[in-house]
Amino acid sequence: MRQDDEEGAPLSPEELERRLRAIGAERYHSLHPFHRLLHGGKLTKGQVQAWALNRYYYQASIPRKDASLLARLPTPELRREWRRRLVDHDGDGVTPGGVERWLKLTDGLGLDRGYVTSLAGLLPATRFAVDAYVAFVQERSVLEAVASSLTELFSPAIISERVEGMLRSYDFVSPDTLAYFTPRLTQAPQDSAFALAYVKREARTRAEQELVLGALRFKCDLLWAQLDALHFAYVEPRLPPPGAFRPEGM
């Protein structure tokens, strides 16, 4: 962030939103080559397994980062909002949440559930990126923590593309395997609408607005970094690090 940006006149809420959406258009991980291969049916089953296994750690860590933010929120209204997100991901003891639905995906891909949840096959870069996200939400301001969730502005498009492409291209997936994604088509817009309204209202100075923009760039970068690691390990040059998951025949 440049000094002149910090000290400049505040952006209008509309201009702040425009700049946030521009970050997504430039940096969201839907643009990554690995996702294009995944959605285009160009990956092997083992490569899809590697993606699902590594992504599990991200999905399982979302409730941890949301719980850490919940503890710092100052009003009942904000806490109720973030408590709903915890239920969406952890479930309520009756209806499965997103973490359980992701395990249904890894089950459907033929991965042993105990192996997935053990994290034994995780790429180091996945662990570092996800842990950095949890730490960011724990350590930065509430404003930045909320802003880091704004990648959900862009997720419905990638979800639709992913489900359509994978069902069309891979005979080893089914609508039941991909059941994680259906609720996210309504949950993500609800989540992002709340977070967007919050940052537009609460980021009043130019410096605060630059922090919001920086938080979204950070989140896009760590999502991109996870796919960089997958691409390097399983696509090109296919060099998974010691101890990481190795698909059959690799």
TrEMBL record:
<comment type="similarity">
    <text>Belongs to the PqqC family.</text>
</comment>
<dbReference type="InterPro" id="IPR016084">
    <property type="entry name" value="Haem_Oase-like_multi-hlx"/>
</dbReference>
<feature type="domain" description="Thiaminase-2/PQQC">
    <location>
        <begin position="18"/>
        <end position="228"/>
    </location>
</feature>
<dbReference type="InterPro" id="IPR011845">
    <property type="entry name" value="PqqC"/>
</dbReference>
<comment type="function">
    <text>Ring cyclization and eight-electron oxidation of 3a-(2-amino-2-carboxyethyl)-4,5-dioxo-4,5,6,7,8,9-hexahydroquinoline-7,9-dicarboxylic-acid to PQQ.</text>
</comment>
<keyword id="KW-0884">PQQ biosynthesis</keyword>
<protein>
    <recommendedName>
        <fullName>Pyrroloquinoline-quinone synthase</fullName>
        <ecNumber>1.3.3.11</ecNumber>
    </recommendedName>
</protein>
<dbReference type="Pfam" id="PF03070">
    <property type="entry name" value="TENA_THI-4"/>
</dbReference>
<dbReference type="InterPro" id="IPR039068">
    <property type="entry name" value="PqqC-like"/>
</dbReference>
<dbReference type="InterPro" id="IPR004305">
    <property type="entry name" value="Thiaminase-2/PQQC"/>
</dbReference>
<comment type="pathway">
    <text>Cofactor biosynthesis; pyrroloquinoline quinone biosynthesis.</text>
</comment>
<dbReference type="GO" id="GO:0018189">
    <property type="term" value="P:pyrroloquinoline quinone biosynthetic process"/>
</dbReference>
<dbReference type="GO" id="GO:0033732">
    <property type="term" value="F:pyrroloquinoline-quinone synthase activity"/>
</dbReference>
<keyword id="KW-0560">Oxidoreductase</keyword>
